[in-house]
Amino acid sequence: MMEYMSQEGYDKLVAELHHLETVELPQVRDAIAEARDKGDLSENFEYHAAKREQGRLLSQIRFRQRVLENARVISKSVLGNDSVGLLCKVEMMNMNTNSRMTYTIVSPHEANLREGKISIKSPIAQALLGKHVGDVVEVRVPAGLMKLRIENITL
Known about the structure:
By secondary structure, this protein is of the alpha/beta class. It contains three helices and seven strands, in the order βααββββαββ. The protein has helices at about 5-35, 45-70, 125-130; strands at about 5, 70-75, 90-95, 100-105, 115-120, 135-140, 145-155. It has a five-stranded mixed beta sheet. A two-stranded parallel ribbon has the order 1-2. The longest helix is centred in the first third of the chain and has 30 residues, at about 5-35. The relative contact order is 0.15.
């Protein structure tokens, strides 16, 4: 399944993969070799812990490789900012609480709420997609029904 993402998100995934393959995996392999040298593997806790860590790392590496295989970097130059879509920064007014919020809609692999980036697959993003400035959308969230008015859309 093809995943669209920003160049920044793609570069971050490539860097994470490189770090896992060149730094963390060799460290775990060294730990396995060191634990193996201690003798009996059946009761060697360090060996089993290192093998579990190796399995976890290999799983993370495979996951990132699959994401990158299916990733397509999307250029902001081909996107319009007349309606909400991927990589758009959306300023909204929460009409229930009269508070402003701003989110950038990104691929699920780039989502980070602390940075104001929400997944395109999230309920809020799904409700906003294709909408324009001035539109009011209702979103069902765990806390109830949220009413949002789109104030501004930028790239």
